Amino acid sequence: MRTSREPRETKAGLEPLAVLPVFVPLQGKRAVLAGSNGGAPWKVKLLAAAGAEVDVYAEDPSEELRAVPGEVVSGRVTLHERRWTPDDLWGAAFAIGAMEDERDCVAFVAAARGAGAIVNAVDRPHLCDVKFGAIVNRSPLVVGISTEGAAPVFGQTVRARIEAMLPRGFARWVAAARDWREAVTGRFHGFAERRFFWERFTDRAFAEPDRAPGADDLAGLLAQTEAAPKGGAVTLVGAGPGDAELLTLKALRALRNADVILYDDLVAPEILDYARREARTMLVGKTGHGPSCRQDDINALMVQLARSGKQVVRLKSGDPLVFGRAGEEIEACRAAGIPVAVVPGVSAAQGAAATLGVSLTHRDAARRLQFVTGHDRRGALPDDLNWGALADPSVTTVVYMPKRTLRALLERAVAEGLAPATPALVVFNATRPAQATVRGSAADLADRIEAAGLEGPAILMVGEALSEARGAALVEEAVGRVAV
């Protein structure tokens, strides 16, 4: 008899940060750089690119540093060929020490802090208030990357990858967002409406990144937002069997739009990282033969949250339409007049088959694919299974939630005509790092499962289509497995 539990709110929070990523506006503000070591010219260019009015103090500037004032495309750079003094720092918002001498740099940092400036010291992280990372510039879209000095080359490689992913046209879209923001805020006073507008805006930007947005885009997005349904809604979202990379784009969009996420125990924790950071997360898990939230309580909670105007995501492992109790939740929403939608996910069967490299419908072995539940409402082997269909040699059968009834199911299937030598296997923790597979036949798989002593969500597969996997180890761990 399963014990019940109440839905409870959770909050994953942030993992520890080595540094706090912040962005400093310097447009029209004064900045100071003192010294002329090798890093000085680039730092001056960065300050000027951010729109700062930069005063450079260097007794013996290099030729590269002398050339900087004529090379900047924004801000202003003035070179003073003399040593810095404490008075030079008053009114500076940002100060950089680029000296070779440590004592001189320490004195500069102390004076700059005394003047109220943010301080960076080139190649001296122990003296820095802030540090520079690698930058991807699609201004006003700016991406900063830091390895906290541990692996600068790695950081540069990450920067290059992000550069390749972000079309240069995004700069025009973000500039349009800056220009349109006041009009959008004035038109839509509700947060949900504004978020809807900017989500549709983002969809257009990603669909046509190299096109400059114009007045027609603004008018179309405003009209689309005006016509959008108002109030709360529920979206049932398939999270896939575990691997976060198997999420669909539509699932990601739903997570990004959610005010509240009701999720099951089997949803991989890293999938919640894709949610909007302001979203509430609530565990409403149902565990096989363990403490579970009552389905009626989950239904009532969904309806209550949606009626209060929230966008609710009901996040389910695998595909919500495959033994995910989606039917009951859809009916509850419709009975309450709540708009409800479904975003399908990669099912556990698909994920497991993909990682094994096995075709469930191999044309030489299977004419049909069937999904079967391993237990009924009481947790026992269902009385109404079609044993003739389970014994059919031309079928691949996938059994969900099979652990408690696996032995009884296979014994009954063999008694009903399933060939004892029929290939069978169970995949534990499909698509996750801890995935493991136990292989055997319909006659001996239950014994092999007991001997393996594995834990975690499991799925049973039976049929001649699995014979291509017969040569593999009887227990196959996922360690070192190449991702599909």
Q: Could you characterize what this model shows?
A:
- There is one protein chain.
- This protein is α/β, with parallel strands linked by helices and 484 residues long.
- The chain is 32% helix and 20% strand.
- The strands form five sheets. The protein has a six-stranded mixed β-sheet, with helices on both faces. The protein has a six-stranded mixed β-sheet with strand order 16-17-20-18-19-21, with helices on both faces.
- The two termini are 39 Å apart.
Radius of gyration (CA) equals: 30 Å
The helix content, as a percent range, equals 25-40%
Low-confidence stretches: 470-475, 478-484
Structural class: alpha/beta
Characteristics:
elongated; disordered C terminus; 14 helices; 32% helix; six-stranded mixed sheet; single chain; 484 residues; 20% strand; alpha/beta
List the helices and strands and how they pair.
Blueprint: E1 4-5, E2 8-10, E3 30-35, H1 40-49, E4 53-57, H2 63-67, E5 76-80, E6 94-98, H3 102-114, E7 118-121, E8 134-138, E9 141-145, H4 152-165, H5 170-187, H6 191-207, H7 215-227, E10 233-238, H8 249-257, E11 260-263, E12 280-283, E13 292-293, H9 295-307, E14 311-316, H10 326-335, E15 340-343, H11 348-356, E16 368-373, H12 387-391, E17 395-400, H13 406-415, E18 423-428, E19 436-441, H14 445-452, E20 458-462, E21 475-477
Parallel strand pairs: 1-13, 3-4, 3-6, 4-5, 6-7, 10-14, 10-15, 11-12, 11-14, 16-17
Antiparallel strand pairs: 2-12, 8-9, 17-20, 18-19, 18-20, 19-21
Helix pairs in contact: 5-6, 6-7, 9-10
